[in-house]
Amino acid sequence: MVVIPQGQSASGASAPPGSECGAAPSRREHAALRLFADLEALRAEAKQDDWAGREGKAIQPESYLLARAILESLIPYFETPELNVDRDGAVVLDWARDREHMLSLTAEPDGRLIYAFRAGPSSGSRTERFQGVIPPALAADLAEVTQICR
What we know:
Layout: H1 25-45, H2 61-74, E1 82-85, E2 91-98, E3 101-107, E4 112-119, E5 122-129, H3 136-145
């Protein structure tokens, strides 16, 4: 992975005020703790089928564990995503810097990472496998979409 100076984005721009990336490590750690608390709250809320009246499945335990492992790998390097559960019970991680820079990743119970992204004029979708480290293509796409933390 390319090392970007603290407070810089992948494009070299300074991190916006209030961004976790430009913050002191304790602030990033607080954001990470909050993210894991949010993931736990989501798991508790989505523990039964039709949990939000959407006729969807309960959160899949394998998807929850995969999402947690992905987050543990990403937290030191990227801003924190928004969390949700899709109708199939898979955990979804969403990053959106603006309308032109976004990535949505689904942590499938079978271990696949399915994601779509838009980074300025570039867009695409990919399927990767998480094997303890973030796949290089996903890291590169995230670097185009969000801030890189050091």
